[in-house]
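INPUT
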Amino acid sequence: MTSVETESGHGGADGDGVPSGRDHDGYTPSARRIERERHRRARARRATAIGALSTLVTGVVLYLVVVHAPGWPRTKETFFSARYAREAFPKVLEGLWLNVRLLLICGAAVLVLGMLIAVARTLRGPVFFPLRALAAAYTDFFRGLPLIINLMIVVLGVPALRLQGVTVDPVLLGGTALTLTYSAYVAEVFRAGIESVHPSQRAAARSLGLTNRQALRHVVLPQAVRRQVPPLLNDLVSLQKDTGLVSIGGAIDAVRAADIIVGRSLNYTPYIVAGLVFVALTIPMTRFTDWVTARMDRRRAQGGAL
Amino acid sequence: MHPAPRVPRPAIVAVTTALLALAVGCAPQPERKAADAPSGSAGGTCAPGELATRTAGKLTVATDEPAYEPWFKDDRPAGGEGYESAVAYAVAERLGYDRSAVVWQSVPFNKAFAPGEKTFDFDINQVSISDERKKAVDFSSGYYDVRQAVLALKGGKAAGATTVAQLRGLKLGAQVGTTSLDYITDVVKPERQPAVYAKNDQAKSALKNGQVDAIVVDLPTAFYITAAEVTDARIVGQFENQGGAPEQFGLVLDKGSALTSCVTDAVDALRENGTLTKIEKRWLSDAVDVPVLK
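OUTPUT
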């Protein structure tokens, strides 16, 4: 069979189908194509201009509505007072350092503990039944227990037992409570990931002579963990916000630092400052999650084409 | 090119109307001014039993829950026992409301003096009168001169302190939004960050459990805690008044409340005729033998 090369270059059965890839020597786009592209560029410019104008108008209208709303001066004084923002910001930042440390340490502990529980829950063999049952009971209990109750029991209640060698530091106790609750959530995420790996993968690994443990370690877990990155980061963002709850033990984190100024000044700007600081921490984490998800989707798509 | 299907205009109109309605609905209420007091029958005077209360014929009095001793006995504000309960009923009687016309309401300490419309006629909850709080609420004249005291476990690190300087290196605790916390940050200026609790109960349990070396509460509360709740704690000492003026507890009223002057008159009358002293003798311990921290 002879294939006929068309003038514009595309048409080969296994060509890449991108016309611009081949318009070398002597190709002049037709007048119709030039006209079409010019038209498209004009439409795109027009769309951008309309979009910009409409955004501007919306912005101005919103601004005018907000500024001329009857409650605006009082709202501004109550929530957006520059004076109290300046007073609160350094103290909130100082408190935030506690939240960040809690996030890093609890985050690491949660990942390790969650993984151990998930693995315990997916172990096979009758001998492991007690372990599986315990892991299931743990996740059921701590996922259902409200975090605030968990914190109050551990931070306020445990020191009353006067156990030897057990800390009374509210931050350590609060971190323990956070780890208990969040490792239950994360264990469920890991378990879902492990169970989402197709059984044929495990079967293939076993048929290659790997032991059950090796199959889990080298074949199942790597695939599971990669799939679980977005929900895991989601739980970390959630953990980051909940570190603010350790303040019930008397520790001054970003939330309580704001609370102290509000308690004295009766102005609510410090809460806004603390809230924004948390949001500012969360947004990069969220964007990072999005980026990781997108990258993994691309990779999976490539894998599917093989 | 086909035009994209348009959003029906009525929907836009409806949404805009809804937003406008919301904006108007959210418009703040003007603050009531004392001068706007009802000019009707009562005419701003404090005619007994005829004040412009929230519920006509009733006097709504608020305090926190739980209500602590020695201010209220057995967590029952309506019992008439305990210093503040007795004062509340004495004020009510003075205003022309007998016991059955007094309705109690539960309002958290922090919320009692926060800006915004109030659901009570007055609140009695050991709220110290301060200029900052006066921007948000009205106060009656003071019904009790209060001192702040330091509590520590017997034999603990803070137990032997006789000066403010000796407290500086210790871990102190107090409830958020209280003058007790202000005394820690402004007078003691501790080297270690103080522990700040949402409730006095939590500060007490932290003291009991050794999570803090000492806590700061007002003196009558300190007497009660050492006598009944944390019996292995002792009062280390009391602070001197800051800036000479005694710290006073006042009744909290809504900003610009029509009742403020009447309630103030009632409190003043009760002080002058010795009723307040009588109630204090009955319910509060004598502060005389508590050493002052220099």
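end of record. Chain B has two domains: 59-144+246-286, 148-239.
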